[in-house]
Design goal:
By secondary structure, the chain is an alpha/beta fold. It has 10 helices and 17 strands. The termini are far apart. The N terminus is likely disordered.
């Protein structure tokens, strides 16, 4: 029965409840096989014999990330019963054999009657499978409950709802993204938080864009995730464990990023919708583009200069010409938001150059997503976003890529899974060659 335990529910997600436990010994057959609170608050759910350093071990079933441990003491026989649990030691283990000390507690603590448990908080999370609670003396050990709470990281760009622990112990949530910047900046910030959750062992079963991506939807409160993506695949926490990604990494040298692992994460989180895939097929047909036989020139010419120094378009053209000297059979695809830059590339390569007519350009300095859709740009915001995602998917498959530093440049490499044959003008406008 969980009725007496309901007071714990609002304090966090208990990932230890019902997990297997073993104890060092048993007093008069008082053995607990799994972790439950005492039937009566202030009582005990297990009882060891009187022995040297009695203990109880909780097996979480797999490696979990613990944010806090609260140990609730026996209180039904007064101070004498409470003193039995002192000094109290907590240790953790990955295999149940080798143990690492976590903390030692010397002060008297209570149980559910007083509401004053011993508390151990882990601000960065404690990753472990086994937890051992023991007394560092000759004593009995009998406790009201051992509450083990899931670690939840502080998120930078959104929040979570419906944090849930399944019967198999897996912890999931719904992530609500709350930022609205450039399209691929939104991709980066959302993935930043999803990776943080994954490292904490929390899987994201739904990415809610009701509050975010505002500049790329025609109805402000619409969740556009289903329009842009096909759904989230299982397994994110496992592949996030050794992933290193922060939203500012997009300004680093791409070849230094863990692109293969980021590609795995992106494939599960941002798999394109049928609408995006159909748009990509149509755009390739309209432009006569064959990515595997093309050099992509990707240039942000509007407001990018306020973020980083920009190399001139002529430098991009020079790299493409250098590649063509070695591979004269290749063609050129130019993708830019600025009409002047596109005209310069078209003049340099003539009939050898292609571009996507579906995507608008401007002669001004305002970012495309900040213009007036329906007046300055003759398309809907969601339509623009779909076309932009389709274009980046196409460009990521090109034989060579010449790009600037920023979110789109980084995502071209994330989709590729590597930075091979990618020429990057970095955040100082210096050329970084492949290799």
């Amino acid at each position: 029965m969980l009725k007496d335990f309901s007071a714990f529910a609002a304090t966090g997600l208990d990932i230890g409840f019902r997990c297997r436990v073993i104890q060092s010994s048993a007093y008069e057959g008082l053995v607990a096989s799994s972790l439950y609170p005492a039937r009566v608050a202030g009582g005990f759910f297990f009882h060891t014999a009187f022995e040297q350093e009695p203990w109880i071990i909780v097996d979480l079933g797999a490696a979990r990330v613990v944010g806090e441990i609260r140990i609730w003491n026996r209180e039904d026989i007064g101070i004498a019963g409470m003193l039995r649990a002192l000094p109290l030691a907590v240790s953790c283990s990955d295999d149940g054999i080798s143990w690492r000390p976590v903390a030692v507690h010397h002060e008297i603590f209570g149980g559910r009657i007083s509401g004053k448990p011993a508390r151990f908080e882990f601000s960065f999370g404690l990753r472990t499978r086994f937890l051992r609670v023991s007394v560092l003396d000759r004593s009995f050990l009998n406790l009201d409950y051992v509450e083990i709470l899931q670690f939840v990281p502080v998120l930078q760009f959104g929040s979570i709802v419906n944090l849930h622990r399944a019967a198999d112990g897996l912890v999931t949530c719904e992530y609500v993204h709350e930022r609205s910047e450039g399209l691929y900046s939104n991709f980066s910030t959302a993935m930043n938080d999803v990776v943080a959750l994954g490292k904490a062992g929390i899987g994201v079963k739904k990415l809610d864009l009701t509050r975010g991506f505002v500049l790329f939807k025609d109805q402000l409160d619409k969740d556009v995730y289903p329009a842009f993506f096909s759904g989230i695949e299982a397994g994110l926490p496992e592949i996030c464990q050794d992933a290193a990604f922060g939203f500012m990494d997009v300004h680093e040298h791409y070849r230094g990023l863990p692109l293969a692992r980021l590609n795995e994460i992106a494939s599960k989180l941002y798999s394109p919708s049928r609408r995006v895939l159909d748009c990509a097929e149509a755009m390739m047909a309209e432009a006569g583009v064959m990515p595997a036989r093309s050099i992509a020139i990707v240039y942000r010419g509007t407001d990018k200069v306020v973020e980083i120094p920009l190399a001139p378009v002529g430098d991009y053209i020079a790299i493409a010409k250098e590649i063509l000297l070695e591979h004269p059979d290749l063609e050129v695809i130019v993708q830019t938001d600025q009409a002047q830059a596109r005209a310069e590339v078209l003049e340099a390569f003539g009939e050898k150059c292609r571009f996507f007519d579906r995507l608008p350009v401007t002669e001004g300095k305002a970012a495309m997503h900040n213009l007036n859709f329906g007046r300055e740009i003759a398309m809907a915001r969601e339509e623009f976003a779909v076309a932009m995602m389709a274009a980046v998917r196409i460009l990521s498959g090109c034989a060579y890529v010449v790009t600037h530093t920023g979110n789109i440049g980084a995502w071209l490499c994330i989709y590729r899974g590597n930075a091979e044959n990618v020429y990057q003008f970095d955040k100082e406008a210096r050329l970084v060659r492949p290799g």
